[in-house]
């Protein structure tokens, strides 16, 4: 029983839940909130600097040529997901309320994950170079695409920053550190490779810090009075249904369009996932005040559900993989 629970809830998920509880019981206020806001900005810059430093140019070149795969992945990430959210918006508003519906639309507009998409592709024996290229490019495209898509889906700004200002702020806070990190690779690549195990803690700590700061602000503004337990339960169901729809569609289209097994795996794991690592800091820029918490809840729940579902799928693909791939020389 314990082993099964540990498979579903990893350490990071448990700590993430703990951070939300801490922000609920002891939210940062006054000068403390100002301190955490500046600390959060530094943490976000460091997070994206490290993302840029980790991405090798060889991986980019190796995966760039597979354009059919990338078009399908980006189509799901930035067109199909938002389209599903927009179509079901009239259903979501009475079911979840306006704040959580905006959070769901934000989730649909986000780019895909990087680390977990590549990890699951690797476990399932998919096309890893294509996954690296597709997932990394998705994060970069999302810096501009996400605020534009969100603005289109919302009738008004609804607590978000203006689109032009948001793109500029996101570029300065996310894209600039990413580019600087990538350009620093001649100096930093070896260090990051050697110390990747403990540097992962820097990534996760940055996300946790942003979550604490965002939820503190929302709790002070009355988050939990806006999100009753029945709406939270409904949100979990909506996230599960959304993931099931996209997983089925990605597999169906990958097979119908004639992609081989390795590419099918890459499409499924890159096109069905949404990035918590990008979504949390981006929400800090796009949303203000009481809207931060409701904007983050859907991506936090969806993140855990997608990890559980994709872990099981990756293991199933790995078990069914051929013992030896044919050699072409």
UniProtKB/TrEMBL annotation:
Q: Name one Pfam family in it.
A: SBF_like
Its name, as the record gives it, is: Bile acid:sodium symporter
What organism does this protein naturally occur in?
Paenalcaligenes hominis
Signal sequence region: none
Q: Which InterPro entries does the UniProt record give?
A: Na+/solute_symporter_sf, Put_Na-Bile_cotransptr
Transmembrane regions = 7-26, 38-55, 67-88, 100-120, 132-154, 166-184, 205-225, 231-254, 275-302
UniProt keywords, alphabetically: Membrane, Transmembrane, Transmembrane helix
Q: Which GO CC annotations does the UniProt entry carry?
A: plasma membrane
């Amino acid at each position: 029983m314990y082993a099964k629970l540990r498979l579903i809830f990893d350490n990071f998920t448990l700590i993430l839940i703990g951070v939300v509880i801490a922000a609920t019981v002891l939210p940062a206020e006054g000068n403390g909130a100002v301190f955490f806001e500046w600390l959060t900005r530094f943490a976000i810059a460091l997070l994206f600097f490290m993302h840029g430093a980790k991405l090798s140019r060889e991986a980019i070149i190796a995966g760039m040529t597979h354009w059919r795969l990338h078009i399908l992945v980006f189509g799901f990430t930035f067109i199909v997901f938002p389209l599903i959210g927009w179509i079901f918006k009239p259903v979501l508003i009475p079911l979840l309320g306006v704040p959580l519906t905006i959070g769901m639309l934000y989730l649909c507009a986000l780019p895909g994950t990087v680390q977990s998409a590549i990890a699951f592709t690797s476990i399932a024996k998919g096309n890893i170079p294509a996954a690296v290229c597709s997932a990394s490019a998705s994060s970069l495209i999302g810096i501009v695409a996400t605020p534009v898509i969100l603005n289109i889906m919302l009738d008004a700004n609804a607590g978000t920053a203006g689109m032009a200002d948001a793109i500029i702020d996101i570029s300065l806070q996310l894209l600039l550190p990413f580019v600087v990190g990538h350009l620093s690779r001649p100096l930093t690549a070896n260090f990051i490779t050697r110390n990747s195990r403990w540097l992962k803690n820097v990534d996760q700590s940055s996300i946790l810090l942003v979550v604490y700061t965002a939820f503190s602000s929302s709790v002070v503004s009355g988050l939990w009075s806006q999100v009753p337990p029945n709406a939270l339960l409904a949100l979990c169901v909506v996230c599960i249904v959304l993931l099931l729809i996209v997983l089925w569609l990605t597999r169906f289209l990958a097979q119908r369009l004639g992609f081989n097994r390795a590419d099918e795996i890459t499409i499924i794991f890159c096109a069905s996932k949404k990035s918590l690592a990008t979504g949390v800091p981006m929400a800090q820029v796009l949303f203000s005040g009481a809207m931060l918490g409701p904007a983050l809840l859907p991506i936090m729940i969806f993140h855990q559900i997608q990890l559980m579902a994709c872990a099981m799928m990756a293991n199933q693909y790995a078990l069914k993989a051929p013992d030896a791939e044919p050699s072409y020389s």
